Amino acid sequence: METIRNWLLPALLAAGQLAWLWPGASLAGETVPGPAGLVAVLAALAVETAALGRRRQAPVRALACTLGTLLLGRLAWDEGYFGWGVLVALYSVAVRCPVPVTVRAVAAGLGVEWLLSFVRIGLRPALASEWAVGALVYAVCVGLGEARHQWLKGRSAAARRLAGAEEARRQAGDTERRRLARELHDVSAHHLTSVVITADAARRLGDSRPELTADALAFAERTGTETLTSLQRLVGLMRDTDGGADPRPMTARIEELIAGFGRLGRPIEAELPDDLAGPAAEAVHGIVREALTNALRHAPGCAARVSVRRGDGVLELTVDNAPPRGSAPHGAGGLGSGRGVAGMKERAAAVGGELTAGPEPGGGWRVRATLPDATGPRSQSAGRRDVLREQRLADPALVFAATVLPLVFAMVTAEEWPGPSLRAAVPALLVLAVLVTVHAVPLLWRRSAPWAALLGVLATSWLWPVAVAVADMPARVSQFFATGALAELLAVYAVGVYGRGAARTWPAWCAAAASLAGVLVATAAADGELTGAGSVRVSAVVMFLPLVVMLAAVFVALWGAGLAVRRRRLRILALDDFALATSLWHAERAADAERRRLAARLRDAVLHRTAAMVEQARQGRLEEVAAEARSALAAMRELLHGLGESEDPGRRLAPAPTAVDLDALCRTLTASGRNVTLRGLPEAARDLPPSVALSAYRIVEAALGAGDQGPARVTLRRRRDTLRVTVSGVPLAVTGPVAERLKVQVEAGAGRITLEQTGIVRVLLSARPSPAPVQEVSPSSHA
């Protein structure tokens, strides 16, 4: 289908040119080129057709070729070679290229067109009208192309949002599990690990420092209560997957967190801004808690320093701890879940930042994070908008067309005027140019303020009869004011498309018809066309009534066309919103299911042990507090490692499919009646990183599921550290929402994708193994 669309229009243009070449020109009595000219025309036509067939893939190259064929064809057959391919190629450039490229393309096209006009006409008054007509046609062509470009850009953005939402829906369960795992890890790492370490220290030093027992029991009771509160929040109150951060400053909470670690017997220095807030502050809180917990676990009693500095739109977080002393007892390294650094990196990446962690040259440990500061000072120019850069080419092109059209009609007949009349009409032509320009300028705001644009057009049109009466303009010039009514037509259409309240926009065509009819009658009366002093009013009425009826019919048709376009666009947007809302709803349902499943396991495995720990602390039983804390921590760790399993053994979550499962996918499709062949699977899928294997499967699955019913072929090739995936026979997968979904999936894996119009999807993925995770504990022998 896409191939037919590419070649249908070039074929029709070529057929029209050939029909005019023979027998059209002979029947019309036009001169037919000789043998050499005929060969040149046919060669130009062949090159033009071939170039236009590639206008969607290479629009600039197609325009360059058509400009060359225009020169060749016009030189060989000046009066008979159409050269319409230039307009088609220029339209494609405006649709598919940025504005600077389009502007340069217009300049090149006009340069060639004006050069040919100068060669054909010479320095005559008709040359100005020829140049004006060329500029008018090119402006309208580019304006239509730019309007199409904006529409396609919006559709592409909508398709990308829908593809992203669909991908989020498919990964909602995994995303929620990862988020809940991070929350649970924070609870286990900070609260329960601290209780275990404090209780162990109090038991070990109870004989020499008996006051530590009371402090440890109080700390266990307080921390256990905080743990119960956090778990209850996870079980009962957490309903929003991305609920946003508390807008209030969090500096006090972070300082309280640091002070709590200081009470455990380690000196901690802190340097924090006073107004930390937003998602970045939430990330700072979680990273500091995790980093200090790791330091407490692996280097107990050693000094630490927390620093948060605000830079150019970012927060620089640094957590340093000194190396453990040789005589210090071994930390509680076996109590962690083994994903502390990974959790900190995930927390930083969730707000768009980066985090690194590793040993220092002196034997200590440093955690460094760079986070975007959404609440920091902003430059005053951040909110400024460049209206000229945001202005579309379509609106200036329409203003130019409404301005030039009356001038073109006036200049076309300029050579027929006698010499004195022509010289006398030059000032009148200047007045005409100024008036039609002022009349068309309000169209620049036809999208943002359609009613104001219409009122501006109607108001400036009443300057016409005033100018005719005051400036004493010749009849040959003043009669061309009527062609300026193009501005009214465009303004009424804009009200139908962009005006608020479709049912309340009908006064637009009524006002336009009455106003334009009155302007034309008044201009005719001021120009002396309504002769006879006693019959001027009667003639005006006789002219006004049928003119209103005719104009009303035209304006109603344009207004109805605008409403039809408006309804079509709103219907498309409504379908997009419905699809997006459906994907988000399914994603939320999947996340809710994960939360309910985890909540049940939390209640059964952790909550009652934590409550028992608090009760034992209140009764002063230190041994039982340590035992219950370890038991709750072990249950939490087991829960973290088993998040991928279902409560019901008969409904366990299936493992994520990988490239190895492509064989089963292709066999299933073949069994359903579609011929799908697979090549290169065993060698290409061997030892692939899990993320790459999953991406390859999802990409092939999406391409084959686009809706095509014909035969398809899947080819996998492994070369060193790259995996090439080629899916052919899927023309529906290279356009529309499926193509956008494929782009999102490939970009998420840092790969490259090529979509060919013949129905081939080519994907290049990096098959390099993921780097080994950073160690949480310094490799120093003192650790």
TrEMBL record:
GO molecular function: ATP binding; phosphorelay sensor kinase activity; protein dimerization activity
Catalytic activity annotation: ATP + protein L-histidine = ADP + protein N-phospho-L-histidine
Region Disordered, annotated ranges: 319-340
The protein's enzyme class: transferase
A Pfam family this chain is assigned to: HisKA_3
Claim: Phosphoprotein is one of the keywords in the record: yes
TM helices/strands, residue ranges: 38-53, 393-412, 424-445, 452-471, 477-499, 506-526, 538-565
Enzyme Commission number(s): 2.7.13.3
Location of the Signal transduction histidine kinase subgroup 3 dimerisation and phosphoacceptor domain: 176-241
Start and end residues of each Histidine kinase/HSP90-like ATPase domain: 283-374
Composition-biased stretches (Gly residues): 331-340
GO terms for cellular component: membrane
Key words, A-Z: ATP-binding, Kinase, Membrane, Nucleotide-binding, Phosphoprotein, Transferase, Transmembrane, Transmembrane helix, Two-component regulatory system
InterPro entries: HATPase_C_sf (IPR036890), HATPase_dom (IPR003594), Sensor_HK_TwoCompSys (IPR050482), Sig_transdc_His_kin_sub3_dim/P (IPR011712)
Full protein name: histidine kinase
Organism: Streptomyces aurantiogriseus
Lineage, opening ranks: Bacteria, Bacillati, Actinomycetota, Actinomycetes, Kitasatosporales
